[in-house]
## 1
Amino acid sequence: MTVSRFYSPQSIAEATAILRQQSGCQVLAGGTDLLVQMRNGVKQPEYIVDIKEIPGIRDVTLTNQGLTLGAAAPAQSVTERPDIAAAYPGLVEAIDMIGSTQIQGRCSVGGNLCNASPAADTVPALIAVGAVCHVVGGEGVRQVRVEDFNTGPGENCLKRDELLISLFIPRPGVGSADAYLRFTPRTEMDIAVVGAGVSLSLDPMGTVSAARVAIGAAAPTALLVEEAAAAIIGTTLEESALAALAAAAGAAASPISDKRGSAGYRTKVVGVMARRAAQIACDRAQQRQRRAH
């Protein structure tokens, strides 16, 4: 690994100026993906821009409006917060699946998103809860929904001089909850064969009034599957609704075949994971409704 220069900017403006002026830059947030890729020769950046010293970029803030995650906030700073886990159990489940305890102290949700792996656990979970990216660059500030952020394996929508600064997730209502499930051959420290995130809201009668369903490791990028959400909206998650959700998730998938599973297998299992995640999210929403009354 040979790097010509290592930058540690102290502000967003300084960071974007470096990215604009120098070609061949790679941003470092936690480094748990980047350093491995450099060692394996997958990436060979000439310059490293370490953003961890930018004020606020490692902050995690929960308010009545929602959760703001700084792009370089360590995963552990999220998973160790009971208040965040209570509000976003599915998202925290997904974040907690990134690597080992040691990795959790360095890796970040923002880095996991920017790395743009189709199998990243946090991405479908973020899509399910409606997360929005706060991006800053030479042309100003823009908001990008997570489902639009990654454009292909290892590729995202950031321009050369842009940075992901933070992620914002709206606070769920009393009758709302989320869940994330993945299938892997091993229970720990493995890459998802498929994953599914679901968030939903129940009205006072227990009918699904809103939903978001996302799948991962089943296409070049994680997908928001609107047809799967539509299959359960207006229902009480009876068997026919869950079957329709699973079928829609499978229909949206376009996975590859590799040593971890065939395309046909992934297509089948992603529907199963989406169905189970929907049921868990519904159970959690019902529990929240009961506690509120």
## 2
Amino acid sequence: MTTAALVADGVRKRYGDIQAVDGVCLRIEAGEFYGILGPNGAGKTTTLEILEGVREPDEGRIELFGKSPWPRNPELLTRIGVQFQASSFFDKLTTRETIRLFASFHRVDARQADAMLERVGLTEFGKVPADKLSGGQAQRLSIACGLVHDPEIVFLDEPTAGLDPQARRNLWDLLRDVNQEGRTVVLTTHYLDEAEILCDRVSVMERGRVLRTGPPAALVRELDDMVRVSVESGQLTPVLMRELLAAAGAGDATVEDDGVSLTVATRTPGPVLSVLGDHGALRGLEVRGATLEDVFLQLTGREYRA
């Protein structure tokens, strides 16, 4: 039987007329990589801050390793690592001085701090002022400061926001390693590919509430969405494709051609692929099933969020 690292039950937080967190219930197992997803304003950051013990809930129960994180519990501080959505470092301190400072808060010696700096690939930037680092380097330093005391659970608030693709991938590798070493990782993100690749389970939030929880692949299967089969335009006309699909018993499929791709949406892709293969129309073939993004959009809607 797995052991819960964190349990939240009926957690609520209000700011004036805004119900930022509205009855959130979570159970996060020890060693799990857990994602909290949601559009801007869904309550992700407030929820994370309550779980960390940084912010007091109006209602509800939170247990972190069986103890309440609020009011700030000194027994938990060495067991928790935190990377906030925005981090500011001391202007005059170098990268090495910064991580050594954070290490000193937990009575961790300088050698361990330097080892963590190497771990995140920042040793060669040790003498660079922390505020002169690039976005990806600053995020790695922020995560290193949260890991330097070897915590059991790490909270990360949108750790790859604003990073270029290469920096994001590098951080993914680091976070995978952190989790595979046995640490529990809890992160918020609005990058659906990130959650799908990294997380064992996710909770989708909207307007302060958890709408759905589960492994990304299971949530996608529950959606039962169409499979989209696309090929390069010009190989078959949409009219002919519809006739061929009807003859093959796949007349419920929809066919669209935007001048670049001929796309067939269907729940039974086998006959579609057979038709395309039989007529030599496989150039540019692409088969796309539902993704976590489709689940997210179905649950939270498609309207623009500032």
